[in-house]
Amino acid sequence: MAQIHELTYTLKAAPEKIVEEMDGLNDTLEEIHIASEAESADEVSSYGADYLKTARTVIK
Question: What is the sign of the dihedral through the CA atoms of 43, 45, 48 and 53?
């Protein structure tokens, strides 16, 4: 029962964490968009890597 009790805290916090991470993805996606308009391949690559890292974390 103690383990279940502890897990409920984690599960309760999970949706909030997902929302935070998704908001961050939106911000990063906007940076990718702006960098692509400026034709800045280095920035697109950097922001793209950040985007994928966060996206993979959320998906896990």
Answer: negative
Which tokens go with 34? 């702006």
Q: Residue 12 is part of which domain span? A: 2-59
Environment class of residue 47 by beta-carbon count within 10 Å: exposed (0-12), middle (13-18) or buried (19+)? buried
CA atoms within 13 A on the CB side of 39: 0
Residue 52 or residue 24, greater confidence: 52
Q: Are 56 and 23 in contact (CB under 8 A)?
A: no
Residue 34's pLDDT is 97
Q: What is the mean pLDDT of residues 45-58?
A: 91
Number of domains in the chain: 1
